[in-house]
Automatic annotation (TrEMBL):
The lineage of its organism: Bacteria, Pseudomonadati, Pseudomonadota, Gammaproteobacteria, Methylococcales. This is 3-oxoacyl-(Acyl-carrier-protein) reductase. Gene3D superfamilies: NAD(P)-binding Rossmann-like Domain. It comes from Methylobacter tundripaludum (strain ATCC BAA-1195 / DSM 17260 / SV96). Belongs to the short-chain dehydrogenases/reductases (SDR) family. GO terms for molecular function: 3-oxoacyl-[acyl-carrier-protein] reductase (NADPH) activity. Its EC number is 1.1.1.100. It is an enzyme of class 1 (oxidoreductase).
Length: 246
């Protein structure tokens, strides 16, 4: 990827999009610091897989990023792992519905905390090492940051904030650090089951008439890290054309 291997911290890296990013970036020669909150078995399996391919190239750490002390510990340990961090991928995210009529303060704090506050304070904690290494930040956002998802108002607000943060930090941390985002569309269905009819209705509003894959997002992240040296403050939409429709 460059004359030296990049050291990458990925939050929420144990499965789904985070794991796809970890595998692809690792295949490009990166060292990967895998953060996870609760998926210990998946994180350990992924770490072992990467280290079997290249010994010493992956490390894991458990943390609740809503806890500021644990968040700062992740940033600190990631910096110590290989002598600094070149790339921060803010992938960890909370996603669940919150009806306006009964949303609680705890749900607000959890969704805003995980999807907006944690990425901001990780960027703050890593700003110096990223600047020293002329590194970059990639935030995993959501197409519903622009058009809120019905039934998920607090989630949508949190992602809208992350989109705004991407542009603000690009100005605040430039010129040394580039900050961009990727906004996925229909990539993975939620853990809570959707009916086949509901999935079909969603895909009918996608220009390519199919869902994407985690690798599609990982490739966009790789592009922003590797080949986008003159791109900052931008959000790359990877949605198969979903946002072409109302």
């Amino acid at each position: 990827m460059n004359s030296h291997a990049k050291n990458v911290l990925i939050t929420g890296a144990s499965k789904r999009i985070g794991a796809a990013c970890a595998r692809l970036l690792h295949s490009e020669g990166c060292n990967i610091f895998l953060h996870y909150r609760s998926s210990a078995a998946e994180a350990q399996q992924l770490c072992d897989e990467l280290n079997q391919q290249r010994p010493g190239s992956a490390k894991i750490m458990q943390a609740d990023l809503l806890n500021m002390a644990e968040l700062e510990a992740v940033a600190r340990e990631a910096c110590l792992a290989w002598g600094g961090i070149d790339v921060l991928v803010n992938n960890a995210s909370s996603f669940y519905p919150t009806a306006i009529s009964d949303v609680t303060e705890r749900q607000w704090d959890e969704l805003l905390g995980g999807n907006l506050k944690a990425p901001f304070f990780l960027a703050k904690a890593l700003a110096k090492t990223l600047a020293d290494n002329k590194g970059c930040i990639v935030n995993i956002i959501d197409i519903h940051a622009e058009r809120g998802l019905s039934g998920y108002p607090v989630y949508s607000i949190s992602k809208a904030g992350l989109a705004a943060m991407t542009k603000v930090l690009a100005k605040e941390l430039g010129p040394a650090v580039r900050v961009n985002g990727v906004a996925p569309g229909a990539i993975l269905w939620p853990d809570n089951d959707l009916s086949e009819q509901a999935k079909l209705e969603i895909l009918q509003r996608v220009a390519l008439k199919r869902s994407g894959e985690p690798l599609d997002i990982a490739k966009a992240v790789l592009f922003l890290i590797k080949d986008a040296g003159y791109i900052t403050g931008q959000i790359l939409t990877v949605d198969g054309g979903r946002t072409l429709f109302c």
